[in-house]
Amino acid sequence: MRTSIATPLLLATACSLAATAQAAEWTMATPYGDASFHTQNTKQFAEDVAEATDGDLTINVQSGGALVSHDEIKPSVRRGTIAAGEIFLSVLSNEDPIFEVDTLPGVAGGYDEAYALWEATKPVISERFAAEGLMPLYAVPWPAQGIYTAEALTDPAQFEGLRVRAPNINTQRFIENLGGSPTETEESDIPTAFSTGRVDAMITSSSTGNSMAAWDYVSHYTDANLWLPKNIVFINQRSFDQLDEDTQEALMNAAERAEERGWEMSREDNQESLAVLEENGITVSEPNEEVSQALQEAGEELFADWQSRANDQAQEALQSYRDQLDD
Ligand code: PCA
After folding, report:
1. Do the domain assignments include residue 199?
2. For burial by CB atoms within 10 Å, which of 19, 25, 65, 141 has the most?
């Protein structure tokens, strides 16, 4: 009697164990909030994966730095505490200058060039990630970086002592080269940085100006087309290896689509965000001659500094991008 009751119970337990062993549930952390097109793209990616794998792999996207802070995302994925993450690639610049190759002025002045730069540098970047047991899935750029100020930026002397918020170290160096006083601030901390008077100005994109309601703090956006820095989405290699082949393939296909879609979204978001900035009273303009000249000089200094720090592999990757442009 006992066995006949126990057997179906055991069977049921065995079946559900088999099902759990197959279906993987991943957590993915991103510092960017739901208003960001990056997060919307990443959430779409997660939906695509769930659909293509019939739920065999679900990815729970934790946005806005809710679960893990920006600088802890890569270490957490490396340890396997979470399986996936999205970060601003250039925050890794301390590890290797190759990670800030997309924050150099005069290198890639538009989306097509930025994409060619990504293709040329992806092998080196992927290799660096692989050395830590990580695998990049896709990368998507922010719109070109520009300068938000409380007054019209007409004279480079205005940078003197100006406290400018920057999203990474290279932008801080750039601000210093201009005579300003940089502060590195997370995107989500921008409103506090302005409202507590810690900064007077910032360098970021139209998109971030829009999602952080820049019009509450500043009135001018100088669309200086400085560079198009990227976010990178990556996973723990061991987590990937544990998936069956079909699931791996579905994941990689969805990643390819996410990259394509993300680049398109970035272009569109730039146009939309510029319009929203203007609707909210921000004057959007291109830099005048004097300001352009100062930005160019500060950029050349920044580039020379990068070259002095970058190893051969990084320099070669940049050169291969340049050779490709010449073809
Ligand atoms: N927005 C992010 C990164 C670059 C951008 O355009 C930020 O400002 O933090």
Report:
1. yes
2. 141
Contact 97, 306 (CB under 8 A): yes
Pick the residue whose CA is nearest to atom 4 on ligand 1: 204
Q: How many domains does the chain have?
A: 1
Is position 14 within any domain? no
Distance CA 302, CA 140 (A): 23
Residue 316 pLDDT level (bands cut at 50, 70, 90) = very high
pLDDT more than 70, % of the chain: 93
Best residue among 103, 204, 270 to mutate for probing ligand 1's pocket (most ligand atoms within 8 Å of CB) is 204
Residue closest via CA to ligand 1's atom 9 equals: 187
Evaluate if pTM is beyond 0.90: yes
- Find the domain containing 288 and state its range: 26-326
Whether 41 and 6 have beta carbons less than 8 Å apart is answered as no
Q: Is residue 3 part of a domain?
A: no
